[in-house]
Amino acid sequence: MNAPAPSGPAPVPLLAPREGIPPVITDDGALAEAVAAFAAGTGPVAVDAERASGHRYGQRAYLVQLRRQGAGTALIDPVACPDLTSLGRALGRSEWVLHAATQDLPCLRDIGMVPFRLFDTELAGRLAGFARVGLGVMVETVLGFSLEKGHSAVDWSSRPLPEPWLRYAALDVELLVDLRDALEEELRRQGKLDWALEEFAAIAAAPPPPPRKDPWRRTSGVHKVRRRRQLAVVKELWTARDQIAQRRDVSPGKVLSDAAIIAAAQSLPPDVRALAGLQGFGHRMGRRQLQHWQSAIDRARALPEEELPQPGQPAGGPPPPRAWAEKDPAAAARLSAARAAVTAHAEELNLPQENLLAPDVVRRLCWEPPAEPGAEAVTEALRTLGAREWQIAQTVGPLTRALAAGD
């Protein structure tokens, strides 16, 4: 997939914000001034947040950056100013511009900032057909500037924040509105702007996601664990690790690696000595820590059969596609035809197939197709499964034909 923007001269390094690095806002007085300035500003508001993923527990924001015409750039410390409801309210119905909005919206919501409408420059890039949609490469490709790299994965919970990090953070919103304007024009040129606006409205209107069911099943490598007793070990170790990580406010991976959990589940060590010989439970781990993990393993070993977790997907959705051929050959044939149809049409439209229609929607449609064939029934099924109207309009024809062919 080729980016639609033409190639040009070498990008110009963007080394510092136009007005310099603003002081970090850490008190109510400075926050009130920023609220007034952004309320009086004009046009869209560039918004970004920095988290400490891989360092701290959870996904809270440790720095919030904003930029708006007439207000300049603001850097806010949400640890010192944990309630930004007044700022969110001051922005009112203004359009927020974010890059990969779904990543930042949960932590912004936690501090009182919820957009009424937004423009997601990453999603806009996907819909416009750009092969690479990271902020740096998008700014370079579309606007001809190169942003500093290297601070995205640092520990943003550190205090005080070093000046190079603050410069990086300010530059993240420096050209975000300019990027938004260029992408809007590109989407309009391709006839996709209405699609993008529908996507953005869906993101802004989406309620907070419910807690993930069985989060322990997302342990990396859990697919290697087949037996129910071993799955119980994964669950017990994951839960014990999560409790420690939350109490210490550190990333769970810093407490115990996923690889160590899987190694223990596969080996089912009977005692601390056996556990100490496994990957991730090496000589640096004290006996008290080892005993804590062994106790979790022993709890799993003692569970009665009827309380052991079931393998595979949690109930409520179709089985993994690899099992379809055996369980329901007709559904497998429908899925193969539908996937091919969606992929082909996505290529024609020059956008990723997962943005044309979510893979889970395709799977659910094929596993339980409408009782009555035809475009009207497929349209209603897609709508029920959460597809947007532009997605339905683009895929109902190919999918209706694919479902008929698969049967």
TrEMBL record:
* Region span, Disordered: 307-329
Source species, domain of life: Bacteria
Q: Which residues form the signal peptide?
A: none
Q: Name one Pfam family in it.
A: DNA_pol_A_exoN
Q: Which PROSITE patterns match?
A: HRDC
**Residues covered by the HRDC domain:** 227-307
| The protein's name | HRDC domain-containing protein
State the organism of origin. Streptomyces litchfieldiae
| Source taxonomy | Bacteria, Bacillati, Actinomycetota, Actinomycetes, Kitasatosporales
